[in-house]
Amino acid sequence: MMNEIIRKQHIQQRRRFAPLPLNTSRFRVAPKVQHIQRFSPSFKPAVYTDLPVSIPAKPMVLAFLAGIGIAFFAGILFSPWPAGLERFVLPAEPAGTAAKLKAYIHQNISDSVDAGESETIPLALTEQFAWQSYRVRNGDTLLGIAKSFNLSIDAIIALNGITNARSLRSGTVLKIPNMDGIPYRVKKGDSLSKISQTWGIPMEAILDANDLSSDVINPGTQLFLPGARLSSVELKQVLGNLFIYPVSGRLTSSFGWRNDPFTGVRRFHAAIDIAQNIGIPVGASMDGRVSTTGYNSVYGNYIILSHDGGYQTMYAHLSAISVKKGERVKQKQKIGAVGNTGYSTGPHLHFAIFKNGRAMNPLELLGK
């Protein structure tokens, strides 16, 4: 498209300086020359015998060079084109055109034109979404299947609604899309332009992939968003590495109902306990921010971290706290040390995970 714009503008520029026709007064040719007749077979040109037999070479060469010089200067003075190199300069591109194209195709237009390459758009805008079936074989992994079809693992996970990559079994039939992307169900208040802006996908790509003739969409409609990816939280959760063990050790108490170790009363234990020596470093189970730290008669020294996706983690009975409220932490980063503070029967870490305020079983979320 860029080359076509330049070509049209160049043609218009040339037309502004088109040469005058030969039959104008400025370039009128003698009548005898304009009406030259073809030689007939019987025509014989006249031979002038009174011309000299030979002409000296030196005067002839000088006359020839003088004629060339006169023709050159006459061409400059009377040429309909402007003199100078500006005749070879292409007209400037209309303001804003390059910026709009660059923003659309996400590449440097000048580089592609200079290199003589055709413009490429990363998404197959003319391709309609489709899928094929694939039966899982022994030894297959989601990552290996994705690579064999030149797709992201997100596309296969999202299209098949996989929540646990470890549950992949031989014989399972998967849907394999013909392009990268993820499915999306239209919600109330959604519009095609809003979806396009939120996910950073050109509206034309969504229209083409879903074979839509209009940008009118209704809640509940299933779309395929070409080029879209799962969030890092969603992907890690499916792959089983969203959370990691904050400390190694022996599991002494699981998530669920149990007898209180001090009173024997039946209580719900909304965490797991990991036995370890006092002073052993405790790491953040997931990237996040320190929501609060403090001391409690039940939990002793504790830390609560907030994470993406509405998750929170709690680390209790610590002997030391190494972070402050509001601090950003990375997964595996040291935040404290194992202790025996608060309501505790021995050195261990009380570790809990919450999702939107509801206690989750850490053993179902922790990576192995």
Overview of this structure, please?
The strands form 4 sheets. Strands 5, 8, 9, 10, 11, 12, 13, 14, 15 and 16 form a 10-stranded antiparallel sheet that branches. This protein has a two-stranded antiparallel sheet with strand order 1-2. Strand 6 (about 255-260) and strand 7 (about 265-270) form a beta hairpin. With about 375 residues, it is of the alpha+beta class. It is elongated. The model is unreliable at about 10-55 and about 80-120 (pLDDT under 50). Helix content is about 25%, strand content about 25%.
Notable characteristics:
368 residues, single chain, ten-stranded antiparallel β-sheet, alpha+beta, 10 helices
